[in-house]
Amino acid sequence: MIADCSAIVDRVEEAGAHDAALALTSHLPQLLSTALAAYLDATGVDVNRFGGSGLRTFLRLAGSEGSVWTPVFEANRTNLGVSAADIARVAQSLIDGDSEAFERARRVWSRISSAPQ
């Protein structure tokens, strides 16, 4: 079944290490996309008029079913809480002019965009 999905087995010895990594690489992107979409809805901004392709790309995950993600968020609440607080601090540093954050972001994008699919 794993091969049929083109997946690779990668055994993680500690469940905590797995949960922390997935909080950052899977659950947090879902959380951020959903939170922004919910916030946009609450503000009433016309996303069709003012939203571009970047917003559409970012909000793709917001189309996911809450019934799938609510239990995931509940199960990994501690890691998500820490990660969300850390992301808020980085966002504020960007607003405050932290150009190094852009360089760190570009390094991550370079690694992920050049990795074999």
Oligomer: single chain
Q: Given the C-alpha coordinates, what overall shape results?
A: globular
Number of helices: 6
Q: Please outline the major beta sheet.
A: none
Order of helices and strands: HHHHHH
Determine the strand fraction and express it as a percent band.
under 5%
Poorly predicted ranges: none
Q: If you had to describe this structure to a student in words, what would you say it looks like?
A:
The chain is mostly helical and 117 residues long. The chain has 6 helices and no strands. The chain has helices at residues 15-43, 47-50, 53-59, 66-75, 77-95, 99-114. Helix 1 (15-43) crosses helix 5. The model has no long low-confidence stretch (mean pLDDT 95).
In short:
By secondary structure, the chain is mainly alpha-helical.
Give me some keywords for this one.
117 residues, mainly alpha, 6 helices, globular
How are the secondary structure elements laid out?
Blueprint: H1 15-43, H2 47-50, H3 53-59, H4 66-75, H5 77-95, H6 99-114
